[in-house]
Amino acid sequence: MRRRHFLALAAAASASPALAAAPRPITVMKSRGCVCCDGWVTHMRRAGFAPKVVVVDDLPREWRRWGVPDTLSSCHIGLIEGYVTVGHIPPADIQRLLREQPSALGLTVPGMPFGSPGMERPDGRREAYETLLLLPNGRTRVFSRHS
């Protein structure tokens, strides 16, 4: 009975996409010395992504290059599987984006909301924020809400 139980567990583990999948590469562009960006990169790594960090001198030029309006910008950009991600987006939102593959430029969390990944506060204070799906021509729609 134990052997059958072990074989069933081994089969389930090998079939699990989370266990079998290789880390997904993401290129992260950020300014030198940005601690909150480093925090977000840590969240991404823990969620099974493989971030490659590139320090850039002119981040606004980069987000404009990828079609992100200034009003929807933040402190770092990620490039993954044809999408752009801007700001402190929860890794689960990026996983959902890659799973659903909508016709969009990517995702953005404008600004730097307290409590978002990489923006945790020592006092635990959080603010509600939205992850926006970035559509062509600077339009958006709410992709997910966080509180």
UniProtKB/TrEMBL annotation:
Keyword Signal listed: yes
Keyword Signal set for record: yes
Superkingdom of source: Bacteria
Xref: Pfam families: DUF411
Signal peptide residues on this chain, from the entry's feature table: 1-20
Keywords: Signal
Listed InterPro entries: DUF411
The name this protein goes by in its record: DUF411 domain-containing protein
Natural source organism: Phenylobacterium kunshanense
Taxonomic classification: Bacteria, Pseudomonadati, Pseudomonadota, Alphaproteobacteria, Caulobacterales
